[in-house]
């Protein structure tokens, strides 16, 4: 908060306009008055590239996924597709199911996001043979 | 994440019996608390270590099968693989408990007990109230306030009818 006050006092109306614009941008970015704001497409592309690394290791998958879940958003289908394929490369079926559980939990009260994502990911799920938590009965107690 | 690790009730530590060698100076023992911990948290879906560290022979063969095509895995095998890596599913870790009823009941019980203590104190601990609390004394106080015209405009004495010596209707 103090950093914001300093910024507003030290710079001017121009930076105020910039920081206003920043607040509308995806929250994954930092609010610098002079820095470039990352667009949604750039964010998605960056994460797809991260998970598409051919020799990704288990730690990187975990770190990436935990970081992604930490953001205030539900990842796009293409990022999840990339992450599920990374699970396949690592021979980690359990993590693939866990990722699906996590994004359903991440959607929170917006109940229509998860079915949409499953619909988008259906080709990948059938190709790789990943079952959804619902198919395994893991969404119930 | 460190705070949640401290607070988590379920933890499964990575078993490590190896010791660190450093530049030939000696052996540093890796302490148990310094190793990664397993915990189920919504915000950390993939914990640092698998839940089951030592696999049984069936689990080892299942892990081998996992390296092949997943389409050939049955639902039970998929669930078994999940349970090797994770302790509780999201549904299980997010479920509520009935603990709040015990907590609420306990709170009310202790408030009630405190009430009994207060009543006992009033009877056995505290001395009598001063004589100024007697009805007769209070009546004299009231008359004095009216004679002094306390708050005559909108407050106390304003509500007293001095002609008829009664409260205004």
Automatic annotation (TrEMBL), chain B:
Localisation per UniProt entry: Mitochondrion inner membrane
InterPro entries: Cyt_c_oxidase_su4 (IPR013288), Cyt_c_oxidase_su4_fam (IPR004203), Cyt_c_oxidase_su4_sf (IPR036639)
Pathway: Energy metabolism; oxidative phosphorylation
SUPFAM superfamilies with a match to the protein in the record: Mitochondrial cytochrome c oxidase subunit IV (SSF81406)
Purpose of the protein: Component of the cytochrome c oxidase, the last enzyme in the mitochondrial electron transport chain which drives oxidative phosphorylation.
Family assignment from sequence similarity: Belongs to the cytochrome c oxidase IV family.
Subunit structure: Component of the cytochrome c oxidase (complex IV, CIV), a multisubunit enzyme composed of 14 subunits. The complex is composed of a catalytic core of 3 subunits MT-CO1, MT-CO2 and MT-CO3, encoded in the mitochondrial DNA, and 11 supernumerary subunits COX4I, COX5A, COX5B, COX6A, COX6B, COX6C, COX7A, COX7B, COX7C, COX8 and NDUFA4, which are encoded in the nuclear genome.
Full protein name: Cytochrome c oxidase subunit 4
Protein species of origin: Periophthalmus magnuspinnatus
Highest classification ranks of the organism: Eukaryota, Metazoa, Chordata, Craniata, Vertebrata
């Amino acid at each position: 908060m103090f950093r914001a006050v300093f910024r507003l006092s030290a710079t001017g109306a121009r930076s105020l306009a910039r920081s206003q614009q920043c607040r509308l941008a995806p929250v994954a970015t930092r609010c610098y008055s002079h820095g470039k704001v990352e667009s949604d497409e750039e964010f998605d592309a960056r994460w797809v590239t991260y998970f598409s690394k051919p020799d990704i290791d288990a730690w990187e998958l975990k770190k990436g996924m935990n970081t992604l879940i930490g953001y205030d958003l539900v990842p796009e289908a293409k990022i999840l597709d990339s992450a599920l394929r990374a699970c396949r490369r690592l021979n980690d079926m359990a993590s693939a199911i866990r990722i699906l559980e996590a994004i359903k939990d991440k959607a929170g009260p917006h109940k229509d996001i998860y079915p949409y994502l499953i619909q988008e990911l259906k080709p990948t799920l059938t190709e790789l043979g990943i079952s959804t938590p619902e198919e395994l009965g893991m969404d119930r107690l | 994440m460190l705070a949640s690790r401290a607070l988590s009730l379920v933890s499964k530590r990575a078993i490590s019996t190896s010791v660190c060698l450093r530049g030939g100076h000696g052996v540093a023992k890796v302490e148990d608390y310094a190793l990664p911990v397993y915990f189920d948290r919504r915000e950390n879906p993939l914990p640092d270590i698998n839940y089951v560290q030592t696999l049984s022979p069936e689990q080892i063969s299942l892990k081998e099968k996992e390296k092949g095509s997943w389409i050939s895995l049955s639902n039970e095998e998929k669930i078994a693989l999940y349970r090797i890596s994770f302790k509780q599913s999201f549904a299980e870790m997010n479920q509520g408990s009935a603990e709040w009823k015990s907590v609420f009941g306990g709170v009310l019980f202790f408030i009630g007990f405190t009430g009994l203590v207060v009543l006992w104190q009033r009877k056995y601990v505290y001395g009598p109230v001063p004589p100024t609390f007697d009805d007769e004394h209070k009546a004299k106080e009231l008359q004095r306030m009216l004679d002094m015209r306390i708050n005559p405009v909108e407050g106390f004495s304003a509500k007293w009818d001095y002609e008829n010596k009664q409260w205004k209707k």
